[in-house]
Write a structure and sequence with these properties.
Helices cover 35% and strands 27% of the residues. It is of the alpha+beta class. It has a five-stranded mixed barrel. Strands 6-7-8 form a three-stranded antiparallel β-sheet. A hairpin with a 7-residue loop joins strand 4 and strand 5. The longest helix is centred in the C-terminal third of the chain and has 20 residues, at 188-207. It starts with a strand and ends with a helix.
């Protein structure tokens, strides 16, 4: 099996003294794993940053065997944010989310386009709120729609609107901006509450049922915001 494509680097792990095993989400072939021989060399390791977009040539003797990549840099997204730890952690967390939630070798143009949309979002000043909605859009694209609008009850407390979602054993407040799209709140604690709500949904609905560990990259991302 031989093909050429473009793709975003999702992860990399050392394979031998000079090589790496990587996962790349490609435009036409979805998520694929493979070896990059010489991946630790000075010639290419600088642009093998998670989140960068690459030209890839993939070669495998059979579907059941791990193939190998030859790569060239297409666009270096990650280095733009080397001085911004919050956005850099966000890139790593977002790519890891795609790695965890997508199936091997299944093309998904919508996910590929969402990665471009992600980079448009984090270039903005009010990126965090938009990123939370991006996560919800990603989950919906993958078949996990939180459907908050249909779950919440609206109440008025001290002349302020409050949205509450109830279950058989829990009642929790939903940040207004997740329901009221006109809400202009940029308070960091409110945004963190929104991010935690999405995190809890993912853990309960996706990660635990599929025996997946809560990603360390997401913990690091959230910690960088505090």
């Amino acid at each position: 099996m031989i093909w050429d494509d473009s793709g975003f680097l999702l992860s990399k792990n050392k394979y031998s003294e000079n090589s790496l095993i990587v996962e790349i989400f490609t435009k036409n072939y979805g998520k694929n794993s493979g070896i990059i021989y010489g991946g630790t060399s000075k010639k290419i390791k600088n642009y093998l940053q998670v989140g960068n977009e690459l030209y890839v040539n993939y070669n495998s003797k059979s579907i059941s065997r791990l193939g190998y990549f030859k790569i060239e840099i297409y666009k270096a997204f990650s280095p733009v944010y080397f001085e911004n730890s919050q956005k850099l952690h966000c890139i790593t967390s977002a790519m890891n989310l795609i790695k965890l939630l997508t199936a091997e070798s299944q093309s998904n143009q919508k996910i590929y386009n969402l990665i471009y949309e992600f980079y448009e979002i984090i270039s903005l000043n009010n990126w965090l709120k938009k990123y939370i909605f991006w996560e919800l859009k990603l989950l919906k694209t993958l078949g996990y729609d939180l459907e908050l609008d249909t779950l919440v009850n609206k109440t008025i407390i001290n002349n302020k609107t409050q949205y509450i979602v109830k279950s058989s054993n829990e009642e929790r407040i939903v940040p207004n901006f997740l329901i009221d799209k006109e809400d202009s709140s940029e308070d960091i604690q409110t945004l963190l509450n929104g991010l935690k709500l999405v995190s809890d949904f993912m853990e309960k609905t996706i990660l635990k049922p599929n025996n997946l560990n809560y990603p360390l990259s997401r913990i690091q991302f959230v910690s960088s915001l505090k």
